[in-house]
Amino acid sequence: MLFNSYAFIFLFLPLVLAGYFALGRVGNLAPVVWLALASLTFYALGNWQYVALLLASIAFNYAVGYLLIARGLRPKVRFAVLTVGVAGDLLVLGIFKYAGFLAANFNAVFSTGLVVHIVLPVGISFYTFTQIAFLVDAYRGRVARYALPHYALFVTYFPHLIAGPILHHRDMIPQFERAGAKRPDPHLILCGLIIFAIGLFKKTCLADGIQPLVGPVFGPGSPTFDQAWIGALAYTFQLYFDFSGYSDMAIGISLMFGIFLPLNFNSPYKATSIVDFWRRWHMTLSQFLRDYLYIPLGGNRHGPVRRYVNLVITMLLGGLWHGAAWTFVAWGALHGAYLCINHAWNRFGPEVAPRLRPAATLAGAVLTFLSVVVAWVFFRADNIDSALYVLVRMADPTRLALGRAEIFNLAFIAFYAALAWFAPNTQAIMGYDHARRAVGEGLRQAQPRPWFLYATSAVLAFGILGIQQHSEFIYFRF
Amino acid sequence: MSSIAKNLLKFLCASALILLMAAALNFAVDPLQLFRPSKLLPAVYSADTRMQDAGLIRSQEFDTAFMGTSLAIHFRQRDIDRILGGRSLKLSMTGSSSREQSFVLEAAMARHPKRVVWQLDDWIFRDTPEIDSDVYLPSGLYRRSAAGLAGYLFSGQMARESLWILARSLPPLEPAVARLTSDLVFKFPIADVDDINSLPPDYDVAGSYNARRALAAYRYITDPVRSRYLADDYNYDAMVRAFERDAIGLISKHPDVTFDIYFPPYSILQFAAARDFSPAALKTVYDFTTYAFPRLLALPNVRLYDFRAVKEVTHDLENYGDVIHHSPAIDLKVLSWLAEGKYRVEPSAPLASLEQLEAQVEAYRLER
Lengths: 478, 368
Prior knowledge:
- With about 475 residues, chain A is mainly alpha-helical.
- In chain A, about 70% of the residues lie in helices and about 0% in strands.
- Chain A has 20 helices and no strands.
- The longest helix of chain A is centred in the first third of the chain and has 36 residues, at about 75-110.
- Chain A is globular, with a radius of gyration of 23 Å.
- The two termini of chain A are about 15 Å apart.
- Chain B is an alpha/beta fold and about 375 residues long.
């Protein structure tokens, strides 16, 4: 089921909200069970054949977590249990996500005819990562024992199940346990609706609106210099508005249930360096990769060379997490290289004079943006050849179309760029503070600015009016 | 009620009001003419035929449905009517599959046409998703399902078009709005139903259809980087399944309707490219014809024409904009051949035209 569908907005969400708050009067556990069942229903409506896999994954990780938390095992046994748990998760992910990719490469190298055709279960990358984090933290002794319904809800919680944000058990489960969240709070519902509306508008009006400019460039056609740039830039903005729109919707929906989700985006195209970009783009994935991959690899604790190696490994695996294809590996490798250059520049580059800092910041922002656009070409292309073909076209200004359509499309892209660069982001508009569990303080006043209320209600209406058939989120396929 | 709860209520009511206003506007203007033919406002049309056809089927008078892909997209209804007689409605859709064509024709059957002129080729019978999973074809509009009509009425894009049509109907605004109307921004820039996807009178036909362009297209598709695409979608079993479901299924279901089916005159370059760079795809084309022609000829309401071996057209590359798309002059020839019954495939020799084509493809040598 899609957030951007009539069935979700007018049927599923109101029903689940009503049931959640109605059961909140009965007790503290019933709403949690209700929400977990609703989440499974949400998943089953589009992916019923993978519900068993999801449930098995929850049972397996909960059992391994129980052994790590509740049983007084010896250190070596604990480590073995952790290894089995993480290896089991990675094995399942590997089978469902990477078996076909491995077989194709095996065939290419050894000229064999292995055929592996496994459909990727939606959300598997996300629920596997959240549970690996749980196991690692359980091993580190940083997890209290959780009740099964709360743990199951943590994994299946429908606002995040399919495409994140990647949640952390220590952030989420205490919120599920809190009795106050089960009472309807009109303020949180209103703020949640507004954040949901902004996300829906981003998806249906902005991301879906620019999507037609992308396909022709990455197809079998032969784009000119300007057309190739239009396609690459259009995808740059489509991906941002699509995924940040989804994240906003997830945050807004969750807020209606009284649950604060972590932020996933913070105006990433305003970044002034690649390091800054990764603090703003898919923030929960960056945090996961930092805490559970980069730091365990040694982080920056073993000298600059190891640091660069660790960065590249982390980004390569981060790329591969997105999909089983060489294009994602190339994308991850590019970002690994960018990060190494960025850190090396910070270490060895010249100090910028104070009077030149604004210009240097601007240059950094432009360079960062262009580097990100180049990397997105690999992220979007069907294969490496196709990506290189588009990049070659982007580097050849001698072939220029610049007709009526191209000029119009460039103006269209300029509008999106202005929004991404100069407009405030959702959390700034709403005053959303995940750490403080605060949102929309201005709306709590007895008389909020009426224009804000009506403008945001128009955003919700336009978001609903923009709903098209079958418009999936790009990150569903990861 | 607390002030915050009141604000929540105001927020929801304001959103609902905007939604209802948009739906009322779309219902009143009805850009697709789904509910009624345009009378108060001037009728306008879109070149997006997968959407527009749903409205045309409801709003136009016709006794002949004309269906095909981009090879049948530039025909003018006036030419069809003049040469073939009757009153036609062109429903051709660029890049359409047999599943889409069959679905749209089935919707058109509700208006009881006497005749269907159907441009078929092997490529349309490729494996495609179920019609309800087809993101390009709004099946709900054809079925007039509640979800389809709600999607139309509660569409922001349609509301923008409705506002624009409304502004265009106001005399003081009309000249300015007409000047600003562009197919880049608005979906309904066409004022005459006959102009939908027809080439305008000032169109540079000679510049768009000539041997230089046809040969450039040939070089493009046979480039080693892209030549593998020549084999895309040529799966014999899938093609036969689609053919039985979409063509035979539809024709058999409507025995009172005459189906004039023709295979269009691709340039010989298309077959030469397949011969040299994708022989398996060429074999599939031949095998498919061997299967399909006798099946079609067995149906009493089918008249089958094969123009693929009309050498004076297919070997004259000046007729083509690429390796398959022919010029408007050939559109008229196609209509004349249909009117005259020329190149009709006879049940006594169902594969005669195929044998001619095979011989031509075998013999053809590209002059470089």
